Amino acid sequence: MSTNTILIICFAALIVVLLVLLIAFIVVSRRNSIPKEHRRDITFTDGADVSSGMMNVSRTGAGFNRKLQGTILISVDGTVTGINDSRRNSVMQIRRLQDNVVFDLVMTGDVTLGRIQNSFIEGYYCVTDSSDVSKYHCSLKRNDDGSVLITDLNSTNHTYVNGIRIEGTSVLRRGDVFRMGHNCDFMLL
C-alpha cells in the first residue's frame, strides 16, 4: 500500500470517530436539557392507569405539594417525561355521534369548530363537511376550573346543547351532546 492510501484510510477513520463522538455528545446534551422535575418526583395515586395516558398524580418536591389531574407524557423508552396539567393546556375529546369518530382538541385557548377543510388557522378543527354547518360554527373554551364553555359564532343553523338552542355561551359537561346545524351531533368525552 502506498503512503497516500494509508493517509486516506486514517483520515476516513478519524472522521468516523469524530462523527460518533459528535452524535454521543448531542444525545447526552439533549437528555440533560430535559428539566429534572419532569424525570422524577412523580408518584401515582388512585390506581392510575398508565395505558390510557390520563391519571391523577401527586407531585412533591422543591417546596410544593399539589395534586394535578392531567395527561402524563411518556417517552419512547417508557420513562415519564412530564405532565400536561388539564387545568391549563390539555387535550379535550369530542365524539361525532353519527359515525363515532373521536376528535382530540388541543386546548391552548379557544378552539373553533366548523367545516373548512385544509384550514391552517391555529385552534381550528374541521369536524364535518356537512353544508348545514357553518365555516366557523362554534367555539369551545376550557375555564381555569376545568369547565367547558361552548359559544355559537352566529352560525346560520345554530348550536344546540342537549336539544336546546343556545344564545351566546353555554356550559358543557362531560357526556353532554351538542349539535351543530341540523344533524351533526357531538358528545363531550
Structure description:
- It is built from one helix and 15 strands; from the N terminus they run H-E-E-E-E-E-E-E-E-E-E-E-E-E-E-E.
- It has 189 residues and is of the alpha+beta class.
- It has three domains: 33 residues; 50 residues, no CATH class; 99 residues, Tumour Suppressor Smad4.
- The strands form three sheets. The protein has a six-stranded antiparallel beta sheet with strand order 6-5-15-14-11-12, with no helix packed on it. A five-stranded mixed beta sheet has the order 8-7-9-10-13, with no helix packed on it. Strands 1-2-3-4 form a four-stranded antiparallel beta sheet, with no helix packed on it.
- The longest helix has 31 residues.
- It is elongated, with a radius of gyration of 25 Å.
**Major sheet strand order:** 6-5-15-14-11-12
Number of strands: 15
Low-confidence stretches: 32-69, 83-89
Portion of residues within helices: 10-25%
Strand content: 35-45%
Cα-to-Cα separation, first versus last residue: 72 Å
